[in-house]
């Protein structure tokens, strides 16, 4: 049996390779290259805010810098690593560092004249257990956090990575601290880990911009709690925070409303914080695609209205052929302004035309 299957495998490998090569060549030939018309999204929004995209550098096997034409990537002037700057990728089981993918992003961005948003230093997810969950004590976890933040901020200065999501998703949807499902909260027995994270980052580099980033910030309970957290931990008072990242995993149809988006941005802006719209993608079944262009127009109208507070708007991907939403939602999504075959969709023009 073993021999037979080895034989079959050996015989089939070259055939499979040839077939897949043919297939991929055919696909590439069928696909029109992305052709710029001389105007880019980032260029159009130059006077308002950066236009960014999350990029993948090989984790989960997708490589944005191989998959996307330079002309398509040139639509953006800011990049965020979709996974490659998270503790799960930067750190190993033995606590060492794996910088290669993150270094590559910094180099790719620099060669394109784009900025890098760092994501993310302290999070309950995508973090090896030894950091906090299985750490011997609060002190040990605190030291792990300090070592990590210091090493990352020493690796990249503020010209290479100009801002960081220092703490990601510390508040629950119900409007309280994320407690039992945060290894950080659990081992600290409270929210002081959040203040520690900002303090370590500020001490490591006074120039880099520090952000708190979360999803569903538009929801009242969660938003109120984020404001309370910032106040209780005296993050503004003590100069530890520069801004809030509003993850915009929103719906195509109507959630959140324009008013809700506007009020959310203004609330943080009026507190003296900078606002970054992070992780923008619009979920919905294919049947809702006809709504996409108007929905993107509405959303960007609000961003422009509130642009005195906004420095950056980042899509959580580049084009519809790569989005985390498909596995997250369990159905196919088409959340961006570039199609699966890397062409401008109607939504692209509805955004661009607003700024011209
Ligand atoms: C997602 C990535 O897109 C996926 O590839 C990964 O498997 C899970 O994480 N909030 C965040 C992002 O802050 O880091 C998440 O990114 C999406 C939700």
Topology readout:
Layout lengths: L1 H29 L10 H4 L5 E6 L8 H4 L2 H4 L4 E4 L5 H4 L9 H12 L3 E8 L15 H18 L7 E6 L14 H6 L3 H13 L4 E6 L5 H13 L10 E9 L6 H13 L3 E10 L8 H14 L4 E6 L9 H5 L16 H10 L1
Parallel strand pairs: 1-2, 1-8, 2-3, 3-4, 4-5, 5-6, 6-7, 7-8
Helix pairs in contact: 7-9, 11-12, 12-14
Structural key phrases:
alpha/beta; 8 strands; binds (3S,4R)-3-hydroxy-2-oxopiperidin-4-yl beta-D-xylopyranoside; 42% helix; 8-stranded parallel barrel; 14 helices; 356 residues; single chain
General description of the model:
- By secondary structure, this protein is of the alpha/beta class.
- 42% of the residues lie in helices and 15% in strands.
- The protein has 14 helices and 8 strands.
- Strands 1-2-3-4-5-6-7-8 form an 8-stranded parallel barrel, surrounded by 4 helices.
- Strand 3, helix 7 and strand 4 form a beta-alpha-beta unit.
- It is globular.
- Residues 1-27 have low confidence and may be disordered.
- Bound molecules: (3S,4R)-3-hydroxy-2-oxopiperidin-4-yl beta-D-xylopyranoside (XIL).
- (3S,4R)-3-hydroxy-2-oxopiperidin-4-yl beta-D-xylopyranoside binds at residues 60, 82-83, 168, 215, 247, 279, 324.
- (3S,4R)-3-hydroxy-2-oxopiperidin-4-yl beta-D-xylopyranoside is lined by residues 60, 82-83, 168, 215, 247, 279, 324.
């Amino acid at each position: 049996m073993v021999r037979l299957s080895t034989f079959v495998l050996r015989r089939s490998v070259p055939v499979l390779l040839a077939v897949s090569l043919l297939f991929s060549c055919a696909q590439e030939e069928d696909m029109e290259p992305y052709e710029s018309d001389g105007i880019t999204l980032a260029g159009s929004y130059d006077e308002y805010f950066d236009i960014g995209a999350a990029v993948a550098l090989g984790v989960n096997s997708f490589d944005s810098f191989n998959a996307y034409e330079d002309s398509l990537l040139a639509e953006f002037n800011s990049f965020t690593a979709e996974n490659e700057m998270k503790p799960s990728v930067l750190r190993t089981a033995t606590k060492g560092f794996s910088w290669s993918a993150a270094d590559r992003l910094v180099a790719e961005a620099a060669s394109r004249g784009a900025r890098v948003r760092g994501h993310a230093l302290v999070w309950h997810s995508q973090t090896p257990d030894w950091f906090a969950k299985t750490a011997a004590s609060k002190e040990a976890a605190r030291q792990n956090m300090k070592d990590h933040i210091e090493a990352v901020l020493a690796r990249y200065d503020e010209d290479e990575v100009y801002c960081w999501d220092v703490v990601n998703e510390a508040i629950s949807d119900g409007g309280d601290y994320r407690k039992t499902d945060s290894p950080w909260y659990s081992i600290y027995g409270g929210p002081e880990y959040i203040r520690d994270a900002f303090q370590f980052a500020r001490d490591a580099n006074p120039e880099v911009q520090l952000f708190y980033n979360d999803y569903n910030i538009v929801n009242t309970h969660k938003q109120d709690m984020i404001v309370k957290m910032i106040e209780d931990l005296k993050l503004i008072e003590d100069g530890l925070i520069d801004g809030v990242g509003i993850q915009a995993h929103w719906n195509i149809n109507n959630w959140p409303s324009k008013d809700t988006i506007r009020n959310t941005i203004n609330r943080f802006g009026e507190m003296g914080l900078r606002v970054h719209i992070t992780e923008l993608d619009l979920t919905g079944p294919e049947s809702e695609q006809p709504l996409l262009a108007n929905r993107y127009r509405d959303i960007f109208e609000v961003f422009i209205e509130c642009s005195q507070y906004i420095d950056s708007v980042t899509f959580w991907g580049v084009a519809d052929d790569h989005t985390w939403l498909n596995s997250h939602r369990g159905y196919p999504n088409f959340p961006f302004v570039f199609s699966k075959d890397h062409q401008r969709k109607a939504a692209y023009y509805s955004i661009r035309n607003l700024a011209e």
